[in-house]
Write a structure and sequence with these properties.
single chain; about 1050 residues; mainly beta; Thrombin, subunit H; Pdz3 Domain; ten-stranded mixed β-sheet; seven-stranded antiparallel β-sheet; 14 helices; elongated; PDZ domain-containing protein; PDZ-like_dom; Peptidase_S1_PA
């Protein structure tokens, strides 16, 4: 770390050179800052220079830093080897007339990106990619020179032949995005193998690399490697994580590409889908090369130290001996007396190409790149095998266009990204190209998959070897339809089937195609999904078999209970209301009604919110569902005609359970297996285990729980009282549910408990099934308090009267429980400004009566009918004195909402109750009287990432106050921001901390979308587009 400014010694020269930390390529670097700090330069790494050289270096560096830029980029979509997100890197100007900036391929990126270049004077200019090499780690950006107003740009010349061992160099670039740093070293090697960054990462090959101990960091990817004259002799690309070694790309093929781009020509690149490695003569001798061959090679090229050898040939490629169908190529055994081989094999040693002797990669690719779609002749040496003699062979290959096997478009559907398998990934995993479509992100579409890097080989029984085949299949499939998809993980031979629900309702479906001329991606959306054909007559399925033997009464009762239990799997398209889209939501529910509408009850860990896709499984049948009620539990409906006839609603036990009752817990596993356990009720009381979560989400509070002594291994089911006679039917007394929260370390946790089905669930069910079939909302008023309970022995020492003491004891005997008076745990909402705190319920208040009714259990609060009252009279024990308070009821905040908005990649919705629970009393700007604009989540690769913060409220947009998501939509229509504009967003946290950020408009990839709850829709939600229409075309027009 540098000393503080006032502590720094006088610099020996105008420039100092700081040291850069452990190197790594930008795409595997740790999270990078998007800040560009000032230039600072300190002494170089451990090699001395003369005074004259020092002065020359000072002059050179003072000049060249005006041509070196910090690059701040955002990958908007996962693609090929790259993931979505922000990063910083380095580049340098190589042609100021045409506005060309050279950087690495993993910086220019094959994926869609938005990026800017920041010069040394902090002048920022938009840049866009015009070329990224399919294999070698270099790419080129372009900017408009006229956009620069305050700097005289220095052009850095490329001199690839100036590199030699022992050359003093300086590497100028970003130090992990924080500083433009300059680090000195000495070139140690010019013939290092290309570095490997991992099997799922981008890797360079078929080239030499240079090496020096400069210790460059991730943010310095794309930095020029300069000699003392200020010429770029190599391009910094990556480095070792375990040493100070840094790796530089030679510039020979870069110069060729730059010259073609300057001339407005296409940069043709050829491939044999073959990987070569330069091997020294001693290695080649071990591969079978004779001493005479070595002597001839050394005499012909005294400076050469070896030849190129084949190490990998991709099946089906131009140099493969096998065709795509697996059959061998049919070629003559010899030509003009020269033995011929059908293809290349690992171990082959290359001597010549088109009769030109080859010793380096540059020699070979100077021929291949200029011979696209033409045949070339390779002369190779192949060691004998299976008794055959070693010898020289000719291999004739037709050069393939390398760009043709480098994807430049992708399909986005259901949040998933698909594109053709690239040569990069095929080479990494040794997978033949055009054998499946690569999944770069599984998104919301593939419910069964949480990973990427696999192939889609068929969809709905139709092969999908290429992206075009996948698009042709997808566009014919209706929305919501469930289809089989065959997948194959890269590098593994076996295929697997997964069932997928097609999503065209929560995400837009579009094909994006790269245009290197404009530096943008053209968006073409798929036409609307076709309508699914429905059967003209819906009927219940009858699986009954009259020939079956009748079970005993107990088994028959168990079968009826099992038939009424339902497994559920839910997926959230976006992170909303504190629930993350990356989680899997599963659980067990119970059918509580069939007529007039079917209803299933679930806990909130299984069905967390309303905007989701639901897959129900009951009696071995699977079908979708839709949420119709969301409170302390969820009620889901479905198409009742899909149920088998043996499914019925259980009978209810209307006698409340008591402590020490003998009961049976019956549950269901994820595999539809019935589990049961005979046990006893051990306690009935408050749920004191739920804690406020981060991010804030719904939690079960103020509900009386029923706990059993032992429970089966399941996450849901029912509690029944053990029948007195074997012939008595099983009657459900409680719903056995999962409850989720977080522990003190912030880790998610879950446990099971029961709730009285007659007190909490059936009243809501009866309302929904009433004559009007109207929607039922959770209670609209409450006391704004979270209650807990406390042992009576503790309360008795706090001034409780003997009369009330005896009353608590008597009330507890009715359910054989321990008397535990209610105590105010915390307020769920801040008090109004200026409110008299003593007039409201306070933490530690003991609740004795509400509206003249003694309160002994939390379940009794459900009988108060708070929705019809503005105030209630509460008697509390406070400070050893009973006090009478007139407490106003307050409007309950819902745990979900009816409108969701995507705004620059941030997911906005109204404030939910769990968020208000955690608002600090000092957070006066948090909206408490309006629905507010709450940030539920932010998408990777979006402009909102690292700017608009999740769990914050948006207060203003471009200075205009917004109090609801509808205000945001109205502002979008009014402003009609242009692509590339910056929008100011003011936001506030739960602690009351405000911040102002700027967000860059990107309507091409992140238009404003809105989803509204719509009962007329089959699944209950309607998608609307509010911006970005100008960037949309329809596929096939």
């Amino acid at each position: 770390m540098l000393p503080a400014k006032d502590e720094q010694p006088p610099p020996p020269s105008p420039i100092e050179i700081p040291r850069i930390t452990t190197p790594r390529p930008a795409h595997v670097a740790p999270p990078l800052s998007r800040q560009l700090s000032t230039i600072s330069v300190t002494s170089s790494v451990g090699h001395s220079t003369s005074a004259n050289d020092k002065e020359t270096w000072d002059r050179t560096l003072s000049r060249v830093i005006n041509g070196i830029v910090s690059i701040k980029a955002t990958t908007t979509r996962p693609f090929d080897t790259e993931s979505a997100g922000d990063y910083t890197a380095t580049g340098f100007v190589i042609d100021k007339k045409h506005g060309l900036i050279l950087s690495n391929r993993h910086v220019v990126n094959p994926a869609p990106i938005t990026c800017v270049a920041v010069f040394v004077n902090y002048e920022e200019v938009p840049i866009w990619p015009v070329y990224r090499d399919p294999v070698h780690d270099f790419g080129i950006f372009r900017y408009e020179p006229d956009k620069l107003k305050h700097i005289c740009v220095e052009e850095i010349e490329l001199h690839p032949n100036a590199a030699h061992v022992g050359e003093d160099i300086k590497v100028v670039g970003n130090d992990a995005g924080e500083k433009l740093s300059i680090l000195g070293s000495t070139l140690a090697r010019l013939d290092r193998h290309a570095p490997s960054y991992g099997i799922d990462s981008y890797n360079d090959f078929n080239t030499f690399y240079m090496q020096a101990a400069s210790g460059t960091s991730g943010g310095s990817s794309g930095s020029p490697v300069l000699n003392i004259h200020g010429h770029a002799i190599a391009l910094n690309a990556g480095g070792s994580n375990s040493s100070q070694s840094s790796f530089y790309l030679p510039l020979h093929r870069v110069v060729r590409a730059v010259e073609k781009i300057k001339a407005g020509q296409h940069v043709n690149r050829g491939t044999l889908q073959t990987e070569f490695l330069h091997k020294s003569y001693d290695e080649l001798r071990r591969l079978g090369m004779t001493a005479d061959m070595e002597e001839d090679c050394r005499a012909r090229y005294p400076d050469a130290t070896g030849l190129l050898s084949v190490i990998r040939v991709l099946r089906g490629g131009p140099a493969s001996a096998l065709l795509k169908d697996g059959s061998a190529k049919d070629v003559p055994s010899e030509i003009n007396g020269q033995p011929r081989a059908p293809g290349l094999e690992p171990g082959d040693i290359v001597f010549s190409c088109n009769k030109k002797h080859i010793t380096t990669f540059v020699d070979l690719w100077s021929i291949i790149d200029d011979a696209v779609d033409q045949e070339i002749t390779l002369e190779i040496f192949r060691a004998g095998k299976n008794g055959s003699a070693s010898g020289m062979f000719q291999v004739i290959c037709k050069v393939q266009d390398l760009h043709s096997i480098t994807p430049s478009r992708f399909l986005e559907i259901g949040g998933a990204i698909f594109h053709d398998l690239s040569y990069q990934m095929g080479r990494n995993h040794n997978v033949e190209l055009e054998t499946g479509v690569f999944c770069a992100a599984s998104g919301f579409l593939l419910w069964s998959s949480w990973s990427r890097d696999f192939l889609i080989t068929s969809v709905a029984g139709k092969p999908t070897r290429t992206l075009n085949e996948l698009i042709d299949v997808i566009r014919t499939i209706p929305d919501h339809q469930r289809i089989p998809v065959m997948t194959k993980h890269l590098g593994k031979p076996d295929e697997h089937v997964m069932m997928v629900d097609v999503d065209r309702h929560f995400f837009l479906a579009a094909v994006f195609e790269r245009d290197d001329v404009s530096g943008t991606w053209i968006r073409r959306e798929l036409p609307d999904a076709p309508f699914e054909k429905e059967d003209s007559v819906a009927h219940k399925t009858d699986f009954s078999d009259d020939t079956e033997e009748e079970d005993d009464p107990e088994s028959a009762s168990l079968d009826r209970i099992k038939a009424a239990m339902v497994n559920v799997v839910c997926r959230l398209p976006y992170s909303i209301y504190g629930h993350t889209s990356a989680s899997n939501y599963t659980g067990v529910g119970l059918i509580v009604a069939l007529e007039p509408i079917p209803l299933v009850v679930f806990d909130r860990t299984a069905v967390p919110t309303e905007m989701l896709d639901i897959r129900l499984t009951v009696a071995n049948k699977s079908f979708p569902g839709r949420v119709v009620y969301l409170g302390n539990f969820a009620l889901v409906t479905f198409d009742g005609s899909l149920l088998p006839q043996e499914v019925t609603v259980p009978e209810w036990d209307e006698t409340p359970l008591k402590v020490r009752d003998e009961v049976r817990v019956i549950g269901l596993t994820a595999d539809q297996l019935l589990v049961q356990k005979d046990t006893t009720i051990c306690s009935i009381g408050m749920n004191f285990n739920t804690k406020p979560c981060n991010p804030p989400r719904h939690r079960l509070i103020n509900v009386e729980n029923i706990n059993v002594l032992e429970a089966p291994n399941c996450w849901g089911g029912v509690i029944i009282r053990k029948p007195t006679r074997p012939t008595d039917p099983f009657r459900v007394a409680a719903f056995y549910m999962a409850v989720g929260s977080q522990n003190r370390n912030g880790d998610d946790c879950c446990w099971t408990q029961g709730i009285d089905i007659n007190r909490y669930i059936l009243p809501i069910v009866r309302s929904l099934c009433g004559p009007q079939h109207q929607a039922v909302e959770p209670p609209t008023k409450d006391l704004g308090i979270e209650f807990a309970d406390m042992p009576l022995s503790t309360v008795s020492t706090m001034g409780l009267s003997e009369k009330r003491f005896r009353a608590f004891v008597k009330a507890a005997k009715k359910f054989r429980g321990n008397p535990r008076p209610l105590v105010v745990e915390t307020r769920l909402r801040p008090l109004p400004l200026g409110a008299n705190e003593d007039a409201y319920l306070k933490p530690a208040d003991i609740i004795l009566e509400i509206d003249g009714r003694p309160i002994y259990r939390v379940s009794e609060i459900t009988e108060l009918d708070l929705d019809t009252k503005d105030t209630v009279e509460v008697i509390v024990l406070r400070g050893r004195i009973e006090q009478k308070l007139h407490v106003p009821t307050i409007h309950s905040w819902p745990s979900s909402g009816k409108t969701i908005v995507q705004f620059f990649g941030s997911i906005l919705h109204s404030t939910h109750s769990a968020a208000l629970e955690q608002v600090s009393p000092n957070a006066t700007l948090v909206p408490l009287t309006s629905s507010g604009v709450y940030v539920g989540g932010v998408s990777y690769g979006s402009p909102a990432l690292d700017n608009i913060r999740p769990t914050h409220w948006i207060l203003e947009i471009d200075g205009a106050p917004v109090g609801s998501v509808d205000d945001v939509l109205a502002l979008v229509k009014e402003k009609r921001w242009k692509q590339g504009d910056y929008v100011r967003v003011k936001q506030v946290s739960r602690k009351g901390i405000t911040s102002l950020v700027s967000v860059k408009v990107d309507e091409r990839f992140w238009p404003t979308l809105c989803w509204r709850r719509d009962g007329a829709k089959e699944r209950g939600w309607r998608q609307e587009r509010w911006s970005g229409e100008e960037f949309v075309d329809v596929l096939g027009k």
